Amino acid sequence: MGVATLVFAMKSDQWGRRRLSAAAAVSVGWAFPLFALLQTGNPVLLTLGFVGGMACFAMRYGPTGAFLPELFRVRYRYSGASIAYSVAGVIGGGVVPLISTGLWASTGSTVPVALVLVALGVLSFLCVQALPETRDHDFSDGLGEGTAAGRP
Q1: Angle between the 17-26 and 111-130 helix axes, to the nearest 10 degrees?
Q2: Which CATH architecture best describes the domain 2-130?
Q3: Which of 12, 77, 140, 148 is most exposed by smallest CB count within 10 Å?
């Protein structure tokens, strides 16, 4: 995953942070084959499932280091990026696992869990589409009062 994160971070400079983030949101469809591979118990298939899952995660994580801070004016960049990242971590790392565990426990199936992940992927895709592309923006205002992605 470390290598894939680095590759996707560099690719975000070429392809655009927004485009790569949108592709990562769509890649959440990997949840269906991932759960099927995990249920086999076969070490090779388990490894394939985890490698695919980590590649999908790296595709989103790679551009985040540049994309998230670039969405905020220079003056507010550190606070904006850290608050957004932390809130997302609480929701994604706390609430979603609780919902997923409840769904799996009540149904005995991974399908509802995968559907939750797909729904979150669709929501993520729509949110990313609402954001500006920041890849080619000039942030060299020098005074901390510049604009991000052309916004005042």
Answers
A1: 160
A2: Up-down Bundle (1.20)
A3: 140
